[in-house]
Amino acid sequence: MSTWLLTGGAGYIGAHVLRALREAGHDAVVLDDLSTGLTERLPDDVELVRTGLLDPDLPAVLTGLTARRPLDGVVHLAAKKSVPESVAKPLYYYEHNVGGTVAVLRAASAAGIGRVLYSSSAAVYGETGSEPVAEEFPTLPTSPYGETKLAGEWAVRRHAEADGLRWAALRYFNVAGTASAQLADRGATNLLPLVMRAASGDGDPVGVFGDDWPTPDGTCLRDYVHVEDLAEAHVAAVEALLDDTVSSPGALNVGRNEPTSVLEVIEAVQRVQGRPVPYRIAPRRPGDPARVVADASRIAKVLGWRASRGVDRMVM
Question: Which residues belong to any copy of the NAD-dependent epimerase/dehydratase domain (predicted)?
Answer without folding.
Answer: 4-255
